[in-house]
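worker-03 picked up job from queue 'complexes'. Input manifest follows; two sequence lines, order preserved.
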Amino acid sequence: MALDKVLAQIDADLDGSLERLFDLLRIKSISTNPAFRDDCARAAHWLVAQLSGIGFDASVRETAGHPMVVAHAKARQADAPHVLFYGHYDVQPVDPLSLWHSDPFAPHMVEEGGDKRIVARGAADDKGQLMTFVEACRAFMNHGGLPCHVTILFEGEEECGSPSMPAFLAANKDELRADVALVCDTNMWNRNTPAITTMLRGLVLEEVVIDAASRDLHSGLFGGAAINPIRVLTRILSDLHDDNGAVALPGFYEGVEELPADVAAQWRALDFSESDFLGEVGLSVPAGEKGRSVLEHVWSRPTCDVNGIIGGYTGEGTKTVLPARASAKVSFRLVGEQEPHKILESFHAFVRARLPADCKATFVSHGASAAISLPFDSSYLQKARGALSREWGVEAVMAGGGGSIPVIGNFKRDLGMDALMIGFGLDDDRIHSPNEKYELKSFHKGTRSWARVLDALAH
Amino acid sequence: MALDKVLAQIDADLDGSLERLFDLLRIKSISTNPAFRDDCARAAHWLVAQLSGIGFDASVRETAGHPMVVAHAKARQADAPHVLFYGHYDVQPVDPLSLWHSDPFAPHMVEEGGDKRIVARGAADDKGQLMTFVEACRAFMNHGGLPCHVTILFEGEEECGSPSMPAFLAANKDELRADVALVCDTNMWNRNTPAITTMLRGLVLEEVVIDAASRDLHSGLFGGAAINPIRVLTRILSDLHDDNGAVALPGFYEGVEELPADVAAQWRALDFSESDFLGEVGLSVPAGEKGRSVLEHVWSRPTCDVNGIIGGYTGEGTKTVLPARASAKVSFRLVGEQEPHKILESFHAFVRARLPADCKATFVSHGASAAISLPFDSSYLQKARGALSREWGVEAVMAGGGGSIPVIGNFKRDLGMDALMIGFGLDDDRIHSPNEKYELKSFHKGTRSWARVLDALAH
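worker-03 finished. Artifact:
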């Protein structure tokens, strides 16, 4: 049976596949900082070389931002289904660098409690994950070819809101449309149980800048008389939540439905400990809307968070300055039918309504996407679930997801494709944090899982 | 008459005195940042060399922080009064550097609207000001000697709250005690009218750090469930003022008296335009306690300001991080009998009362000093006021002051000395801001003013 040979090949080539992953992890493809522009391009070209090497028709496609990678390969049989695999080669910034135990771009293996882990920025998010699919394809190519027609789309702007994606999809609809999209950028349920994510929150990223005096002032000479933009900003931000932890923007909960009874029941039956989830990161009390579970907080409820704030003197020691400017980066996670543009309008109005005399607010948009969900009765979902369950020996969980993958909304709206989100990350992978890691087991069995999923989708 | 010769000498040596000032301005003596420790020591040694060169018995005195400079010179007549002159050679940090039009430590002269200005960090605060006194002493030394016994004390920690000063004064009481202290670190009333500052607000500088989760989290995976320390901090800070602009700390206004009727009348009679004062820095509406004048806001009322805030991702672009920590630098300006330690206790309790579960507050103290004031009937005050009025051709104003000079409280409490605060800065000198400047006229006529004041105090 061809699948057995493919799985054996994956096992035999594990060291080779790790070497290739490490090569990719060494490239500093941080997309949010223009200083790493060339590194992003380098990652794209490296991927094209890899894909071409195993028989894909692959190319780098320039955009206004970082380039896309597009690659095609035919299945052994002409009537096989056609999948579009999506991943992203860009990674998050590494600061605070001082908290890393090693160079974020010098990937290496560490062993902890019997588990081997790949440590590097991007090890899990998303280089390690996307390479599981590439390596599964490599194994098929070495044993007679792919069971599905495969198109691959890698982008380099996922971590900055995918600004070039909508136009790219619109311009290349016919080339990119497939029967179903496969995405590897999510987590397992736990270290032994795979998961397919069927709901994803949307994401609105907005920066607000408050300007007051025409220059920084001495707080001794002007303090008391001159308006302080930090005071204005902190007051606005503190109004964003009410005393019950709900978001206080007018109209924010429009389009948010309660969870269907059957899904709620499935979630309640999951082996999930709120105290373990929070305890893992040093916390004990859920901080979200009162009266709701932590799984609701992170999967099915919309949120607002301040991801960054800065104003005045923030160096060592003190400076009695009354600053001219203060700013904050605010993000909203959306669910259900919440409309990103309405949330933005409400936020802008909320800020402006709270501006005192002499203050000006400027907004910088870093992306806005709606929530998405996959129908539970999809045949692709059922086939993939069976394949995962066979690889891991336990039933795959159908999960909600807290993070956002904006492109999945575009796949649905612009190309009419559902997406299967299957990933092998773990909650403790420290993605977006110092010392990001990816389990060797995730990488190895993740590659095997994709081989099984591709095989199952073709039957 | 000796004074005329001294004044003529000051006029003739203006270029030489500017060259010396520029040498001092080139030294990057930023006291709040440990990276500039050696530069601070260099400034102290440069001053000792200058003072020794004109006949002072001068020395550098080490402290736990940056060194002091102490120098002594006898008057021509043994029964002359003894003055202690105080200034500080340390300067504020220069950020944001991008807003400077030239290197902050490359002093140079610019001409604007007929006025010549010295541009550099420290040009006004306080290197330019302290050199007016040194140059006045130099002129006397070249013409038969000083009219008063003079002790000079320069410190290098004024911009970081003078942490070494109390112990240094206690250990050197007998050496430093004089009949009256002279301090050159304040402003004129306007470009043509000198001022003696008779009231100074105290200053409490406190940093608050809020810690929540044990590491930075992904806001998609944890947002909603995990407490965000930025949200906690902004809520605390926004509670610090009530809707009328008053400080909401319990007990904050204890020890704050209304202004005496005669002083209030004098202030009302001053030629002061609130709209010009605020308009100069791009503002129009006073932001302090409602129902009070801007002069009250900046001279006689206590205030609270956030001088800096930081948390989460503050680089370019975005990062969907839920940070583990957020912090703010908060300062309180004190008046009357407000007690610094009570304000601190109240602030700590205020923060702790607002901490939700899983959050911890840590405080870092950067100094605390009470307000001080000079008796209006002091004979030194009257003599100095006459001398200033003769130099400038208009009556010197007796002013309040918004900034803080902590050492003046120590002079009063520990050495029993009143201080005459006479300075030649202007409100638009941009001290603590980019493009700090000092008027050439301030430097030149300031030097002449000190010659007249020293001469007047001796009669």
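worker-03 released lock.
The two ends of chain A are 14 Å apart (CA to CA).
The longest helix of chain A spans residues 440-457.
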